[in-house]
Structure formats: C-alpha cells, structure tokens
Amino acid sequence: MACSVADSGFLFLASKQRPIHSTRITQVASSGTYCLKWESLPQIRSKQKSCLISLRKTNVVRAVAVPIAPSSLDSAEDRKRLSEMYGFRQIGEPLPDKVTMKDITETLPKKVFEIDNGKALKSVLISATSYTLGLFMIAKAPWYLLPLAWAWTGTAVTGFFVIGHDCAHKSFSKNKLLEDIIGTLAFLPLIYPYEPWRFKHDRHHAKTNMLHEDTAWQPVWKEEFDSVPALRKAIIFGYGPFRPWMSIAHWWLCHFNLKKFRPNEINRVKISLGCVFAFMAIGWPLIIWKTGIIGWIKFWLMPWLGYHFWMSTFTMVHHTAPHIPFKNSDEWNAAQAQLNGTVHCDYPSWIEVLCHDINVHIPHHISPRIPSYNLRAAHQSLQQNWGKYLNEASWNWRLMKTILTICHVYDKEQNYVPFDEVVPEEAQPITFLKKVMPDYA
C-alpha cells in the first residue's frame, strides 16, 4: 500500500491488497488541515510528502479517493492525479472567463447541425427492433436469463427516450409537428409526459450546474439536511446506494404537478399528461389481461426500472464530479458550465448504439440543436479546438464510487462534502458502499 498527501490537498490511497482499517483521518478544527493517525502499521520508509509501506506484490491495483481540501485545477500534475483518483481519463483545465458560448459554437462545422430524416428514421428502427427483440427474449428466456433480457430491454427502451429527447430539442426532424408526435409516442412506454419533461429540460440546458436553478441534479443543502432529521436516512440512501434509480423520484415530483409550470405551458402539459394516463388506462390492463400481473412485472416494470437506471446514471455522470462546481447565478459562466462542467463518458459499444450516443454529451450542451447522430463528429471538432478543456472518462467502478460516496452536500470551497463527514453516525450506507464497491478504473 502507498499513501501520499499531495500538494493538491487530496489524500490518495492505492492498495495492492485490502485497506488498512487501523488508519484514521481527523480534521484540525477550523484549519482545513487533515491529519493521519496510524496504528499498528508495519515499518515505513519516509520521503517528503509521502510514505511507503511494503506489502506482497500482486497484479491488482486499487485506488480510493478521499477529498481533503479543494485543489487547483491549474496544474497539469494535479489534474492528472485527480483523474486517477476519480476514475477520469482526463480532467480539463479551467476555461478562461473571456471565452463565450459563441466562441465555441463557431468552431463547430456547419454540417453537424444538419437534420437528416434518413438517419432519424434509422434511429427509430434501431430502437423499435432492439425493443421488440428484448420483449421476445423476456418471453422465451428461462428464469435465470431474465436479468440479461431485462438489461437489454431496459437499454433498448432508453433509446426511445433519446429519440423523444431529440424531438424536444427540435433536432430530430424538419417537420416540427411530426417531432412533437414522435416525441410523445416515444415517451409513452416510459409513462413519461413529453411536454412537461421538455419544459424542465430546457431549463437544465439554460442553467446547467447553477445552484437552485438547474432542474436535473442538485447537491444536498446542509441547512435543509440538518432541518429534517427524520428524512436524513432517506436522503443518504437516495444520494448513495439508491442514486442509480433516483430519476424515478424526479419523474414523479417534477412532471405531474401543474403548479410547477408557467401559465403559457399548462395546455401542452395537460395534453401530454392525458396521453400518459391514456396509455396507463389502456396499455397496462391489456398487458395484465394477456400475461397477468407477473407478465406486467416481467414485460413492463423490470425494463422500466432498467431505463431509470440508465436515466439516473447518465445524468449524474454527465455533470457530477468532485471537481465540477455548482455556482450561484452571479458567479455562473455559461461556457464554463457547458464545456468544463459536462462530462464525455464512453460506455460499451452496444449501449452507445442502443442509446444513440447520448453520452457524447459535451457537444449536446454546446448546442442542443445538434442531432444525436452528429454528436460524434461534433465531439471530434471540440477535441481538436478545445480538447485541453474537456472532461473525459470511460464508465468504470471508480467513477461511480466517487459519485456515490463523495458528491453529496454542497460546499462552496470543496464543491461537495460526503455524508460520512457531515453525519458519520448516520452514514452507514455510504461506508458500506466504500467497502463493497470495487475501485477499478
């Protein structure tokens, strides 16, 4: 095992076997300094700012990132170290304040904004075919293969969401009425109301990672966390082990209450809600009539939960990391939030195909008018012109562990404070995740 306290103020632990549980980290009051207390450790060889402990050699290397204090992203050495800690391939250097969204958009080739009805139809065929195949797999698979069938079908139906997502951004078809019809239909298997989601999602793009205003993920506010002791455990579970399904709460709380929408949005919201309720009133009874309650669970509920796993995972990976800040409106910078505050993440190719490259996400935040089938070309352009500012990763255990165990309570200086630092006596779900989740990147 090796440990070092780096100039960045972060503690890096790399274990070739298991973590040594006799190590404790304590904070010196008000100084912002963290101290290590070592108990019963083997012989140590010391160097400046580091200590080395020899253990048996093995081929597996694990790493754990523990936030100690805010670190400057100006240093290439610090960014490389943080990339390794957090499971990133690259953490981008800070974008200069003078850069504007217009500056970035003008570097993109005009062809990436072109709508191609043939490519749009191809995406519909991919989703329809893969979803149909998934339903066939569920119908024919023995019980022990059902989880694989559900994983495929949940991913396939996520492709429908991405199609509706493009329609909402008016980047799917040149026929705008057709876009609204296809978007509404694509969202129906997910019982997601299209227009309410579109209105909320537009605000997410306009105010990405802005405190109080972004309609996607927000960090937990310590004042609110402290004010509701009875709900603390639910919040800890929600931002910890249950976070890959927290989009279910977002779906329910943000899209069915008419009071959450502006007066000029209400009529379109009502139409979408009517479509969703009609699907539930007709579609669900038909499924139950044909296959029974167990069939409803097999053919609809489990793929729906699979979709929400991807919905939650994609959205939190897109904009959540210890080094990506949320800012108040008076400090917020659009170009920095969209280019520096968005993450490009590579997933296995079959997921990328079924989900229509939605995780090639940085160009989508530079301009939502870019169709999903042009996102890769747009990203290549951004890499050529703005590559050193980009956050890039491949989906891995360390990346997920970082988000689930660190990115909790808002802090202006550190960006996030983990629950197990705020309420260590109540943070058992987080300490459990730290113990059981692999650290492989």
UniProtKB/TrEMBL annotation:
Protein localization: Membrane
Keywords: Membrane, Oxidoreductase, Transmembrane, Transmembrane helix
TM ranges: 144-164, 269-287, 293-310
Keyword Transmembrane belongs to the record: yes
A cellular-component GO term for this protein: membrane
Protein name, UniProt field: Omega-6 fatty acid desaturase, chloroplastic isoform X2
PANTHER family the UniProt entry points to: OMEGA-6 FATTY ACID DESATURASE, CHLOROPLASTIC
Gene Ontology biological process terms, A to Z: lipid metabolic process
